[in-house]
Structures are given as structure tokens and as C-alpha cells.
Specification:
Strand content: 15-25%
Distance between the termini: 40 Å
Strand order of the largest sheet: 4-5-15-10-11-14
Helix content: 40-55%
Structural class: alpha/beta
Bound molecules: pyridoxal-5'-phosphate
Shape: globular
Number of strands: 16
Largest sheet: 6 strands, mixed
Length: 494
Amino acid sequence: MPMMYQSTRDQENKVTASQAILQGLAADGGLFTPVSFPKLALSFNKLKDESYQSIAKLVLSAFFDDFTEDEIEYCISSAYDNKFDTSLIAPVVSLTDSHHLELFHGTTIAFKDMALSILPYLLTTAAKKQSVEQKIVILTATSGDTGKAAMAGFADVPGTEIIVFYPHAGVSKIQELQMTTQVGGNTQVVAIEGNFDDAQADVKRMFNDPVLAQKLAARGMQLSSANSMNIGRLIPQVVYYIYAYAQLVKAGRIEAGQNINITVPTGNFGNILAAYYAKKIGLPVAKFICASNENKVLTDFFTSGIYDKKRSFKVTTSPSMDILVSSNLERLVFHLVGDNAEKTKCLMGALTRNGSYELKDSDETIFSQFVAGFATEAETAAEIKRVFELDDYVMDPHTAVASAVYQSYRHETRDDTPTLIASTASPYKFPSVVVEAITGEPVADDFEAVSQLKQLSHVVQPKAVIGLQNATVRHRLLVKTADMQTAVEDYLGL
Ligand SMILES: *Cc1c(COP(=O)(O)O)cnc(C)c1O
């Protein structure tokens, strides 16, 4: 029997890994989620000498067990190659009081590359396995980083089209240029007059629109998702937590088997959920520290058990975390209510109808593993400066949110468990914010900031930023949220 993935909203909707990857989102609106987890005997004294690719093979073959060994190897070697600027793929840097897992060494210098460089291969391989002849259309809403990383992964991959929506006023200049200069005959970028939640809500709606599905089918196309709702994105993220732990053992920072804490700057709840799944397959973790910016809906959820999106949306300096509806939380909620699809569906219904839900009778053994906190804009900037002065290490604002939240957690609890911080973007992706935080002086623009950052840090300027200033803008479409579907239909000629 292969491993099955069940929709969080319908117990009868169970599919294999390749089907789950291909569908992206379940037709009932739920997310495909493992109900049982593979048991891996993780021997870190051995794993410490393994490459990223070989740990990826271990984890991915366990979760995607209807893929052949050759298929898994093909996907891994196509994804984790010299697109990354280090052969370690995800290096761990130890600072005075935490260890940073640097997830920004891929094409677009943010952690989305970790999963989005492999997803196109998983998806096209899954399509072949399922004898799907249709063209796969990827629709993605992005708060800034996913869109570019998805396009970089899918650009000119045969049999695919990719359409990305981003909030016009909600991304950094560098993020916007990265997207609007994207090449590839199968890529389309659409700015919307709305925020990320608006974009994500309408993408979800399109996925569940039977009329649109028919129109697409008539043209030999079907939708799939590159958002972190796709299990094909989530599971590759489990890999780096296992790898990081092995690196810490190798460096003598921890003993094999010793508990660590993991702090994750969180938006859609994908990255931190992957850490939780890593624990489910044997990673020794005590606490998952969920760090938010001023959009602190998750902090409130973990403190009160109430998820309430009815609040004003704030645009912050960590835009990839400016989210009020964290899609992947649905998977944790499903586990918290005892893998009960009926109950999960009810709660998610309440969220759509009333903008909130209250978790009752949740599994305390799971809930208590999560700690949550948030950092204000001022605290985030101060943390960038503090760590720069203490460790001569430059963090991007998302990572700084995590670092600040971890510092307050440590001061409040005196918990000195070795802690891994997921470092999710290169400082070069948000150069103005970083330089202003360190120098206290405003900078003219991102490009001026890049040159200052080169002086300040020991980090060489990534390829992703070089040349961006003079690249040709190829995408200029700006639409109202209500017109997103029209933009899709126009582009695909439906
Ligand atoms: C997407 C993103 C996050 C949030 O990750 P989630 O998996 O959505 O919680 C944090 N930091 C950066 C830089 C990101 O791009």
C-alpha cells in the first residue's frame, strides 16, 4: 500500500502522493495531508556526513512512495544543482546565541527556492505517472517571494504555463523587478489592486470553480498550484531541517539525539509546518517558535486558541509575512482536532463566513509544542542592528523578526535549548530596510542600498541582484481583484 494523503475537509478524499501533487489543492477546498507518517530511523551520526541531495532522497522517497527511485533521483538532481551558490545548498551559520539555517542560496535568494526548484520536476513527473496529457496551468498568489521562485522553476518547462498574481503596493522594489522582468514564453505576471489575502482568496476560488475547470479542459488544460498548499512544496521543506540538524551534529554543536528548538518567521505557515513534519519522522525538537510581524494573527491564535482575521492588514518591512489567512495552518488544525476532516471543515467554514473560529478540545500534546510571538517594526530594525554589532552578521527583515521573537522567548523562559533559526531571505533582497536599520540613515533607493550593503557585510552580492536594475520589464498588467479570472482567461485564450 502506498502512503495516502487525505483532504483536510473530506475523509473520503484520499489520494497517492503523485495525485496529491498534481491536484495541488483538493477539489473540496481542503489540503492534502499525510494521516500517518513514515517512520525513519534517523541516525545522525551517519547522516552528518551525507550530502543535501542524499538526505533529500531519504525524506522524499519516504513521503512520495509512489515515485520510483529513478524518478526521485531525477527530481533531486535537477533541482539542487549549481542554481544554488553553495554546494551545501542550505548552510548553517552558528552565531553567539542561535544557529541560522540559511535557506536563501537559490536563484531568487529567498527560501521559496528550496521547494520551488524541485516542484516543477515533481509535478511533471507526477503528470507522466498519472498519464495526464493536459497542459498544467500553475496559478499562484504571492506576497512577494513565491511568485518569482515559482516562475524561475517553471520558466520554459514543457507542458506548463504559469500565472502569478502579486499585490501591487505590497512588495519591495527588488521583488517587483524580479517578477516583472521574468523571461520565459510560458510566464505571465499580474499585479492586483489589493493585498495578498485578496489575491490568495481569488486564486482559491478559481481552483474550485467548475465552470473555469470545464473551459480549461476544453482547451486541454488543468490547474495546479505552486503555493505552499501543494504537498509537493511542503515535503521538500522537511529535508533542510533534517540536514541542518545533521550539520549541527557534525560541527559538534549538539549531540545526536539532543533536542533543539526551531524558530521560523511565519506567514502562510508552510515552513514551520515542515519543521513539525520533520519531528513527526524523528527529528528531536522541543519547541516550534512561530514568529510573526505586526500581522500577528498567529500569535493570537497560539495564545488564545482563537483565529481571528478581522483586523486591519499592515504592510510591513517583512512583506512575505504580511498575511492574515495562513493557509497551511489548516493542516495543523486538522491534526489538532485529531485528524478529523468533519471538524476541520466546520472551522474553515466559520473562518470564511465569520472571519474567525475558536479551537475547542484540541490535542494539547501538539498545541503545547508551539510557542508564538511577534516583533514590531521597531524591534525588527533594532534586532538587525543588534546582531550586526554582536556577530557581524547581516540578517534580512524576515529573519530579524524570528531572531527578535526568539530573543524575547529566551529572556522570558530562560530556555537555553540550542535553537535553529530559519533564515529565509538574503539581506540583498531587502537592502534599504537592512541598511537603514544598521546605519540609522535613510537611503535613496534599493540600488543605492545594495552598494552600501556590499561595504557593510561580508556577503558577496548575489547573482539575482546583479543586472536587475537594467533588465527589461516584460510584464506591466495591473488589474482589480475582481478581474483576476479575466486576466487568466485572456492570457490562456479561453
Ligand atoms: C514566504 C516567506 C516567509 C513565510 O513562510 P511561510 O512558509 O509562508 O510561513 C518568511 N520569510 C520569507 C523571506 C518568505 O519568502
